[in-house]
Amino acid sequence: MEHRGAPLDVIARSLRRERERVGLSLSELAKRAGVAKSTLSQLESASGNPSVETLWALSVALDVPFSRLVEPPRPRVQVIRAGEGPAVYSEHAEYVATLLASCPPHARRDIYLITAEPGGKRESLPHSPGVVEHVVLCSGEALIGPTEDPVRLTPGDYISYPGDLPHIFEALVPGTSACLISEHV
Amino acid sequence: MEHRGAPLDVIARSLRRERERVGLSLSELAKRAGVAKSTLSQLESASGNPSVETLWALSVALDVPFSRLVEPPRPRVQVIRAGEGPAVYSEHAEYVATLLASCPPHARRDIYLITAEPGGKRESLPHSPGVVEHVVLCSGEALIGPTEDPVRLTPGDYISYPGDLPHIFEALVPGTSACLISEHV
DNA sequence: ACACAACGTTCGCGTTGACGAACGCTCCCG
DNA sequence: CGGGAGCGTTCGTCAACGCGAACGTTGTGT
Q1: Residue B132 in contact with residue B157, Cβ under 8 Å?
Q2: H/E segment holding residue A147
Q3: What would the pLDDT profile of B25-35 be if each residue is shown by its tens digit?
Q4: B87-184 — its CATH code?
Q5: Domain map of chain B by residue range?
Q6: Which of A42, A170, B116, B151 is the most buried (most CB within 10 A)?
Q7: Looking at beta carbons, which residues of chain A come within 8 Å of B161?
Q8: Taken in order A128, A134, A139, A143, is the CA torsion positive or negative?
Q9: What homologous superfamily is domain A8-70 in, according to CATH?
Q10: A25 CA: nearest nucleotide by C1'
Q11: Closest approach of chain B CAs to the CA of A27, in angstroms?
């Protein structure tokens, strides 16, 4: 079959990497997963287009989440100081979102640091469907959540809500900041 | 083939759900994805074991992350007040981790609220491999990161590091709190 | 040195996924 | 009423995935 850009080579590398990390031989893993070792051999050499059943069995035998075999790995250690990092300014100047971590390609979650001042009610239009946002309030006080039913949060409080609904972030006191995780389910 | 517990029915439901949410007909989606509509029809009726290529093409055409088709959906809105939620106490009483969000099955990330007081150096043994931790310091000051190379963080700072390396969380001033995301890559 | 075991690869073969064509169905328009 | 477009399903064909068996290679022990 012609390749459509699917991560067959990524799968190959992931299988090899995970298998060696666990310390299993190709034969051993094949036996545990109930897969012919010839099949596994071909998959690790990126010659083949595995079925979901097969790949699923391997992910179970390796005890890694399924998506770990399909998506490429990501970097290791990273530090972003307060004030550094790419900032996303709102139409209101009182609101700044700093992107702390994203995971391309086919991002699964982004982490933002939000700082906001009172007065600027920040209404977010619905994002692409399948997004869930998690917010932990760090300091100050804010009204956060779905627009038709927001919640008043104080430091340490947590809320999560669907990102494909309209939602708001309204700081109630100066110096309000929060950690926001925007996640693709 | 005999089913190995693979999420074929989950895939079927996910395909149907995502397709209808986007508002595409079965024929239309098949055309856009470059997949025979007969194939797609069989997949949505859970009779079949798609190859990765096929499912990948569908995920691209639907513009959803691949794993969204393989894993079942999760709940919607949730609030946890500061002090509520399941707490994970350390051997040192000065350290409390509150679990805010986890995502079974085959968890991909957990979100914790950490509160710690000075004096209790919290050394974490390496977790299962493939884990990455993200920390955003909310208040106070702390020494966080890989044990052999920790970083001094102040409020708003961010760090991420591999969870399969030994790492520490040492509060330097009273009332230190942080948001910790423990993530399976 | 030889036998043996374990590893990873390669080689036919049966099964099955993916395809295009044809089908029944509903709806819409002339 | 009849034709046509669109929908989702079913049917036959071909390619390819997954399998077991056999192979060459490496390392071990008696």
Answers
A1: no
A2: none
A3: 899 999 999 99
A4: 2.60.120.10
A5: 8-70, 87-184
A6: B116
A7: 76-78
A8: positive
A9: lambda repressor-like DNA-binding domains (1.10.260.40)
A10: C7
A11: 19
